[in-house]
Amino acid sequence: xxxxxxxxxxxxxxxxxxxxxxxxxxxxxxxxxxxxxxxxxxxxxxxxxxxxxxxxxxxxxxxxxxxxxxxxxxxxxxxxxxxxxxxxxxxxxxxxxxxxxxxxxxxxxxxxxxxxxxxxxxxxxxxxxxxxxxxxxxxxxxxxxxxxxxxxxxxxxxxxxxxxxxxxxxxxxxxxxxxxxxxxxxxxxxxxxxxxxxxxxxxxxxxxxxxxxxxxxxxxxxxxxxxxxxxxxxxxxxxxxxx
Length: 243
Prior knowledge:
Elements: E1 3-10, H1 16-24, E2 28-32, E3 39-47, E4 50-56, H2 68-80, E5 84-90, H3 94-107, E6 111-116, H4 118-123, H5 130-137, E7 141-143, H6 152-164, H7 178-195, H8 201-209, H9 213-223, H10 231-238
Parallel strand pairs: 1-4, 1-5, 5-6, 6-7
Antiparallel strand pairs: 2-3, 3-4
Helix pairs in contact: 7-8
Pfam family, one: FeoB_N
InterPro entries: FeoB_Cyto, FeoB_GTPase, G_FEOB_dom, P-loop_NTPase
Protein name: Iron transporter FeoB
């Protein structure tokens, strides 16, 4: 029986941990992320003929470097490269929650968007067009209520499709203004040349343009290499048009 890894990502208070607990039950344990005080939870669940290692990432509003939680979530998705990143959104606050989903999709297309609290949304008269959102994002989108155990099998079916590769995503690619896109285009080949093609070069280029030195620190740690330049140096050498 093959085992796949599923990372649970989401804003705080979206019911992410409720879903995680529902699926893993007592088959879970907690620990700390390496080198951080941030707590991590891992568990296991089965669906059809597959077993899954579930990793509950810290609840975050973004994957930038604003906190240890955000860095831990970001680093796991980039460096551990889970088979599926399950992005849990609050159906009553979709607009705000989709920000994190879009950031995940910039890193990986191996994702499923899970819109939780669908029962609460219905009470508020909110109607969500899942097909339209799925088509726009380019990944499976499923509505559930973790608390009331609604839609769980349908969700796991989509997780299985992505994990096994029977669904291949063409995730939404966000276009930035001309200046930023020019910077990304110039920096991406340098990123690939330096760290290879294993990591999401376009997203890393974007973060470097933002001056994200903490991402470079993580890259150095995971590559066991200390000769990566600082973000400012990379930008200075490679992107003259941006500045």
